[in-house]
Amino acid sequence: MPQITIDYSHPVEDAFDVDGFTRALHEGVVEIAAAKPEACKTMIRYDNLSAYGYDDRADARHALVQVTIGLLPGRTEEIKARLTEATLELLRKYIAPQDGITLHASAEVRELDASYRKFDE
């Protein structure tokens, strides 16, 4: 915990400082949600097959970025909202604007289900 997933699409890959964003996000999760740095685990997934509305995918005028943060239960709604807003602000900082590209970014903080288990070997 926390379990973080960053999904992002073409054509944002060259404008997205993924390493800088991930480091800053981990720092934010530690500060806002009282997580331990070593507990922050992030899976980063690039997708070049995303679609937006009825647009032709070949036009590549839209980029999608979705960040999901899974936390163990116990954080208040205020903390989760602060973390979501901080995540969106970091995306604005670590993704450079691109002419002709509309960036669609979203973030969600959710509680891990009671069935959540893990192991480290």
TrEMBL record:
A molecular function (GO) term: isomerase activity
Keywords: Isomerase
PANTHER family linked: 4-HYDROXYPHENYLACETATE CATABOLISM PROTEIN
UniProt-recorded name of the protein: Isomerase
The species this protein was found in: Kribbella speibonae
Taxonomic lineage from the root: Bacteria, Bacillati, Actinomycetota, Actinomycetes, Propionibacteriales
